[in-house]
Amino acid sequence: MKIIIFCACLITFVLCQKRAILSPDIDPLSDLMVNKINSLNTTWKAGKNFDGYTIDEIAKLCGVKRLERSSDEFGRIEVEVEPYIPKTFDARSAWPHCPSISFIRDQGGCGSCWAFGSAEAMSDRTCIKSNGRVKVILSPEDILSCCIDCGYGCNGGYIEAAYQYWVEEGVVTGGLFNGTGCKPYKIAPCEHHAIGPRPNCTDEITPACEVQCQSNYRKTYLEDKHYGLNSYKIVANVSQIQSEILRNGPVTAGYIVYSDFANYKSGVYQRHSNVTLGGHAVRILGWGIETGVPYWLVANSWNTDWGDKGYFKIRRGVNECGIEDHIVAGIPKN
């Protein structure tokens, strides 16, 4: 009992500590910023990333727009809370027969995170619902290029609209650049980081919509479509978000990126900056507690060299960077 009380007090202390905000005059990509963050002894570790880039170039990767349509058109739902929610959960180990859950992608120099975060969760849920019978990597390229109502392609889009496209038009398969499936991603991977084998990222133009599969694929474009049965937003409630993931698989989340996030290396992220770069879409796989701090386990789309092999953790239960306020999901039709 004493141990339980101690842990509860530790969590409360960590969550209630006053947030330290660093000066906006510090170059967010500098060694000084990295050292300042680490000197705070915060819940995460910073390191030098994006060497040779400007903060404006990184901001272009954050392409989530907030939908300003009526709640009747795309309203929030109340999720029935599971009677037992484990302290830790990881979708990768919960559904090991679904390889898409462990697949980290690379959006290149395009602000297509909204299409990636959506296609990734759709892929996971398609496999989960079929009990592993349908293992697919759905195509962010199809959503990015062919969804007219989704937004502005590489200049940003709407997560909710991407899910509506899945329901109404379906999404074909397609992996990474030069990869497998009907429509692989047309934009090449690029080096988001200080040192690596890929070319530097450049501004990308949205690829044209093509309603056909690559020449060596065995199905036609229409034959390869996978559909959603429905789509919805979830209220900003931790237990409801957890219950949704436990029941149906990973969800897509939109949140505000602050400039210090560019330096994330490990630990549980919390912002120490007031400088915003834009909205970003990611995939929440699970949750846990690290050194007394509750977190969400999240997959990014900046390749496996970024962060913790493509993943990061972010504080749970305090709507850190708005991540609990913009959760979108759907049920596959299969």
From TrEMBL:
<dbReference type="InterPro" id="IPR000668">
    <property type="entry name" value="Peptidase_C1A_C"/>
</dbReference>
<dbReference type="InterPro" id="IPR025660">
    <property type="entry name" value="Pept_his_AS"/>
</dbReference>
<dbReference type="Pfam" id="PF00112">
    <property type="entry name" value="Peptidase_C1"/>
</dbReference>
<protein>
    <recommendedName>
        <fullName>Peptidase C1A papain C-terminal domain-containing protein</fullName>
    </recommendedName>
</protein>
<keyword id="KW-0378">Hydrolase</keyword>
<feature type="domain" description="Peptidase C1A papain C-terminal">
    <location>
        <begin position="85"/>
        <end position="331"/>
    </location>
</feature>
<dbReference type="InterPro" id="IPR013128">
    <property type="entry name" value="Peptidase_C1A"/>
</dbReference>
<keyword id="KW-0732">Signal</keyword>
<dbReference type="GO" id="GO:0006508">
    <property type="term" value="P:proteolysis"/>
</dbReference>
<comment type="similarity">
    <text>Belongs to the peptidase C1 family.</text>
</comment>
<keyword id="KW-0865">Zymogen</keyword>
<dbReference type="InterPro" id="IPR012599">
    <property type="entry name" value="Propeptide_C1A"/>
</dbReference>
<keyword id="KW-1015">Disulfide bond</keyword>
<dbReference type="InterPro" id="IPR000169">
    <property type="entry name" value="Pept_cys_AS"/>
</dbReference>
<dbReference type="Pfam" id="PF08127">
    <property type="entry name" value="Propeptide_C1"/>
</dbReference>
<dbReference type="InterPro" id="IPR025661">
    <property type="entry name" value="Pept_asp_AS"/>
</dbReference>
<feature type="signal peptide">
    <location>
        <begin position="1"/>
        <end position="16"/>
    </location>
</feature>
<keyword id="KW-0645">Protease</keyword>
<dbReference type="InterPro" id="IPR038765">
    <property type="entry name" value="Papain-like_cys_pep_sf"/>
</dbReference>
<dbReference type="GO" id="GO:0004197">
    <property type="term" value="F:cysteine-type endopeptidase activity"/>
</dbReference>
<keyword id="KW-0788">Thiol protease</keyword>
